[in-house]
Structures
1.
Amino acid sequence: MTSEELQSIIMAGLPCEHIELSGDGRHWYATIVSSVFEGKRLIQRHQKVYATLGGRMQTDEVHALSMKTYTPAEWAAHPQS
């Protein structure tokens, strides 16, 4: 899977204001900004992202996804490098 494919999958199921992905095709690192995360705990945010992947985690198409999730306000306050 390419980063473009993974980004399309996530964005199809989750409205994202910003998304950054890097990885090797199976192991991914993501930064995701979405208003859907408002009022959600970290685990709930991650569950929302995992839900967009459907069975791709179970079939090992995406072996690992490490993520940082932010609301738009959190992202605006986050120091950008």
2.
Amino acid sequence: MIALLLLPLVLPFALRPMARRALQRLTPVTALWLLTGSAVIAAGCTLAALGAFVLTGLLRLPLFASLGELIHPLRTSYGGLVPPAAVLSAGALTVCARTLTRWALNQSRAFRAARTQAGRGPVAGDLCVLDSPHPDAYALPGRPHRIVVTTGMLRSLDAAEREALFAHERAHNAGGHHYFLVAAELAARCHPALGPVRDAIRLAAERAADEAAATVVGDRRLIARAIARAALAGQSARSRRPDFVPGATTGPVPQRVKALLATPRVTHRTAACGLAALLIACAALSFAASATSMIDVHHRVEVAQGEAAR
């Protein structure tokens, strides 16, 4: 049981190198879906494993065993390792809960402030212009979706570049990329190894919007120029938008510009399928290990309650 519970805690480290290769081998949209799904499953299995350690440790104590209507305290293999593992798991869950709560509250306040600010500016369709000298532009989710841009950003771009920038932001809203970014941020706060995966997901969302905008505009060089100029103009400005709100200047802009200017590569189907299979296998193995260990804990509880034979 100990080995099965440890596996979901170790497997997220295997996602880190795969996340770096995802955008090289997979299309941005495919990478976005696979990386986000793998990160969410890995984070959920991490929490389940930590919870199983805590529950197992508590039910070994007579007090909690009686509260759980156990005839005798829970018996497990490698019993000497369970108490310290339970203490460490309880600490990790406490830190995780505190971090998640603080992030959720901060982001909720930032989102409400952004929506309120967007509601004060002039609106033309889905476009909202804020009177600010600080160049910024981002896709704001909600009902309705908004493309928020400051007057400082509008003055930094010519007419064609503005349309390219708007196409990029509309691609974010059309693709629902804020959902992926929320999931990535939450997952990264459940396991430290998922931080680089979150960064890869953010880059995948930007690359997906870049490619979608290039398809709409029909000019990859224009999209690249608009992104580069917008990033250059906004590099000294500090945006107060929430972490899950995507913007054209988010992520490693030079890498995104290079991808837009390069000749689209022919994806090697075998390599792409192999990487996708590895991501899916890693998530499936983590889920299987977590589910099997939880079933084992449940069976041991039933035995301790006298409801099942060993």
